[in-house]
Amino acid sequence: MSPDGQMFPRMVDDVMSDAAALARAAEFAAFNGQLEDAQQLLERCTDSLPQEPAAEGAVALARAELAFQRSNYAEAAALADRAATRLLLVGDAEGELRALELHPRVWARHGEEERVQRRCEQLLERWRARTGNEAVEGQVRCLTLITFMHARRFRYEDGIATGSLAVRLARDTARMHSLLPRAANALAGLHFAKACALHPATGWASHITSLAPTDHPDVLEHCRVAMALLGEVRPYSKAGGNQYQDALIGSNMGQLQVLMGAPDAALPDMQRFLDVSRQRQNRYMEADALQAIGWAHLVGGRLPDAQAALMHALGIAASLQAAPLLITIHYDLSTILERAGEVARALHHYREYARLWRRAHQQLAAQPSPHARRRLEPFYLKRAEALIRASLPHSPSAEEIAQHSGASIRAVQLAFREYRGMTPHKYSLALRYQAAHDALASRQEARGIGQICSELGFDDPSRFAREFRKRFGLLPSAFSRDAEPGRNRASAAGGV
């Protein structure tokens, strides 16, 4: 993506008169957040820039990297295209690859994943036609980008296959310390996305950051695979001196920890990624980091902290017109404000979410992956769910739910059937069974099965036991504190 660190001194000390070499040094400086140094190097090399494609391409690429780091994405995309064209003319495959690597980083933020993936696949075939270590490194870099694009397009199985190949090839390259962390990060992202797709709440919440921690075994397995992979490669990132890559890996490990139920443990790494993003003056990544921190606070029950982080992220994302970030931020703010009882403000953010969602996801229905077919949930469904949860162990009447949600009884019932696959009453019942499961699964609980049943409104122990086994695969007695170790874990599949 950018020159290796060890190349920088040679560029500056040995070939200061070479405009292309100065431009490449500027590109490296920009990539590492040294924006003023990059600007000065560019000014020096453009004063006497020769009219030939190699130098023009190198300068255009450096300017593109600098524009990207300053969050000027439209300018960065145009310059990256210019650089790729010039470098192609002179047969500079390495330079063209760096230009194309920058291009997806820009345009993936604007919903052009398919276009980006096609270009990456074309470039991959060109590198496969070559031989030598450089060709393998080129393949790794292309496969890493394609993996990322698969994640953006909800093609999880294809992405995991591609990412696994990239990781395998990267282990045998001379630049393993640089390429392996990138490839592993992309593959771990696919496992994280797959975990979210398998989450019991999938189809209930439209966004990853809205998902609560879970003990679902399939979700946890993908999280563990991703954590192990990132833990393995993080030392390589540290050894390579890439502060940004190391911070990014740490932040991604933090998001995995949140999904696995450890939001407090995630915050230090997330904060470090925020600090590095600010040091590099990358506003998009700063907003992305604040969004992740807001999620951690939300899961941890710290609503004021979550709201503060997300409002800060909202201001940055709005200034950048970054729709992917804005969609999620508005949704999460609507959730926080709803919980805080600020219905009017929650509705405002939900309407913004809905507006942006419709605009950004017009083509998702045509995607072959079922995970891409996200449906826009009505706000009154969120209100109805909040009332049902707050009323446990009792079930509010249909009239009470309709009055609280601000919609008709029929509209609420239809929404539950479409988006939850059940009636409001069955939804309430499922929540009660899930609460019983969580209480019994906690071996620190002092309450017995009978007391838990009574508190949750289950008057028939035999019927409760039969239904519990149907939902979770084990009888309630398997969760007794006197049961054999290892028998207290049950799949929540089929539960809420």
What would you note in describing this structure?
The protein has helices spanning 7-14, 19-31, 35-46, 53-69, 73-89, 93-107, 113-128, 133-152, 156-170, 176-198, 217-239, 243-259, 263-279, 283-299, 303-320, 323-339, 343-360, 379-391, 398-405, 409-419, 424-441, 449-455, 461-472. α4 packs parallel to α6 (93-107) and α7 packs antiparallel against α8. It is an all-alpha fold and 496 residues long. It has 2 domains: 111-372, Serine Threonine Protein Phosphatase 5, Tetratricopeptide repeat; 380-479, Homeodomain-like (Arc Repressor Mutant, subunit A). 71% of the residues lie in helices and 0% in strands. It has 23 helices and no strands.
Q: What value does the average pLDDT take?
A: 78
According to CATH, what is the class of the largest domain? Answer: Mainly Alpha
Oligomeric state as shown: single chain
The number of domains is: 2
DSSP strand content: under 5%
User: What is the structural class?
Assistant: mainly alpha
How does CATH name the architecture of the largest domain?
Alpha Horseshoe
CA(first)-CA(last) distance: 43 Å
Give the total of beta strands. Answer: 0
Features:
Arc Repressor Mutant, subunit A, Serine Threonine Protein Phosphatase 5, Tetratricopeptide repeat, mainly alpha, 2 domains, 496 residues, disordered N terminus, disordered C terminus
